[in-house]
Amino acid sequence: MRKGRFRKPIARVALHYSESQSFDRRLYRQDIAGSIAHATALAKAGIISAEEKKKIESGLRDIEREIASEEFSWNESLEDVHMNIENTLTQRIGEAGAKLHTARSRNDQVALDLRLYVKDETRRTSLQIKKLQKSLLSLAQKQGGVLVPGYTHLQRAQPVYFAHYLLSHVEALARDSERLNDSLQRTDVLPLGSGALAGSTIVLDRESIARDLKFTRVSQNSLDAVSDRDFVCEFLFCLAVIGMHLSRLSEDLIVWSTSEFGFVEFSEEFSTGSSLMPQKKNPDMAELTRGKTGRLYGNLMSMLTTLKALPSSYNRDLQEDKEVLFDSADTVTAALEVFSAMLPKMKINRGRMTAAAGDPSLLATDLAEYLVKKGMPFRQAHETVGKIVADAGSKQQLNRIPLTKLKKYSSLFAADVSRIFDAGRSLSARQSTGAPSPKNVKAQIARWRKELR
To answer: Which of 45, 200, 430, 446 is 20 to 30 A off residue 142, Cα-Cα?
Structure first.
């Protein structure tokens, strides 16, 4: 590239500072696919012959195999994945290789590679999400009848089935998958043919290229096409939300694995020990996932900050899009993989969960609703039960308060109040859509089994 305009070679320090082949080489499959489609379009336009197209495709396939088997020799002085592949191709097949870059720029070439990469990663991440959903669903099926306290403000609130808790994470992951698939609409746009920013006087059939590369749409403005990284931001956002969901799940499991809770126990394969304290068994995989979420947020913010003040069209700043993209994709891939393998091996301490869920104070809301059903306005019922709880304190459990004492708070209390303090009965009555009745939970498990099949 420097032979025409430049008389001096680039300074070694500048080359090392600006090269990207050390990390963008992972786009080689996408780059080669795009080059083959471009060569096909050049042949259709009569720019290269059928024989030259054949040489180009054959040469690119050979290079692809060499890179995959780690036999390819990368050259830092060629800056990036694009020039490394093109230079090697030209060395091997001659003039035909030098014709390949006709009517395209690295600006629209890298935009194409990134879109192909994000499309591939979107599909792969969606499959990994589905795998984790299946792990959660399998655990929900096995632990279907186990009760656990539901928490607000990390304080015991109301009893739920453990399966209902697990299904809540299946739902969150479903939104993640929907969000990823929705973002494909804006990623699935072919930028190739936009040139550096204004297309080319050599007109290629972009719609045909789009079909070859399985894009559903073609970009409509060349200036926008080479600078658009909205799809990268959107993908990074999707990954950050996945990280947030995994982090919240991690936090629950970390807390529940403590001696104070004792609800779950991580298997030895997914735990670590202490370098000092021999008794320790630490939930490091969950903690790392919680920590790595910060990286996902940082990568998204880094990309947004890079873009916020760029002038129109392509700028070299956009080289900074790749490392954050690759890092987030790798981080989420690893986290989803770990959780899918870790959850089936996690021990569920059913006795500790059931005992905690049996705390009568978790049914205080049921007690208020008992009074509502007897005719008392809810706000008054809420206040009445609040006084009962305050007066009982830690000295007396709600289900142990004599009826005669309850009647001092309200004459509406009758002998049937004793039936309130049965968590199973309480959950069976919670039959509205989305509530954790046994019937609803069973139906949701069946629904997810069908959807994830």
So the answer is: 430
Amino acid 57 reads E
Question: Is 364 strand, coil or helix?
Answer: helix
Q: What is the DSSP string of 262-296?
A: -SEE--GGG-B--SS-TT--B-HHHHHHHHHHHHH
Closest CA to 94 of 124, 67, 56, 68: 56
Residue where the block lists tokens 């009074």: 371
| Tens of pLDDT, residues 242-269 | 999 999 999 999 999 999 999 999 999 9
Token readout for 105 is: 């720029």
- 366-396 pLDDT tens trace: 999 999 999 999 999 999 999 999 999 988 9
| 171 and 53 housed in the same domain | no
| Same domain as 46, residue 81 | yes
**Is 1's pLDDT higher than 70?**
no
* CATH of residue 155: 1.20.200.10
Is 3 inside a domain boundary?
Answer: no
Query: Which of 301, 324, 352 delimits the end of a domain?
Result: 352
What is the residue whose two structure tokens read 């903690």?
Answer: 287
Query: What residues act catalytically?
Result: 153, 274
The strand pair at 264-265 and 217-218 is best described as unpaired
Quick one: 302 and 177 in the same domain?
yes
CATH number at 446 reads: 1.10.40.30
Q: Is residue 55 part of a domain?
A: yes
- Bridge partners (DSSP) of residue 160 are 148
- 419 in any annotated domain: yes
CB 60 within 8 A of CB 32: yes
Sign of the torsion angle spanned by Cα atoms 44, 48, 53, 59: negative
Separation between Cα atoms, residue 281 and residue 441, nearest integer Å:
33
Q: What's the CA gap between 277 and 289, in Å, rounded?
A: 23
pTM beyond cutoff 0.90: yes
- The dihedral built from the CA positions of residue 337, 342, 344 and 345, taken in this order, carries a sign that is positive
CB-based contact 156:356 (threshold 8 Å): yes
**Cβ atoms within 10 Å of 230's Cβ, excluding its own:** 13
Owning domain of residue 89: 12-102
What's the CA gap between 236 and 296, in Å, rounded? 7
What are the residues facing 259 on neighbouring strands?
none
The reply to whether 196 and 118 lie within a common domain is: yes
Tokens of 269: 């394969």
Q: CB of 108 within 8 A of CB of 225?
A: yes
Same-domain status, 151 and 234: yes
Query: Considering its fold, how many domains does the chain have in total?
Result: 3
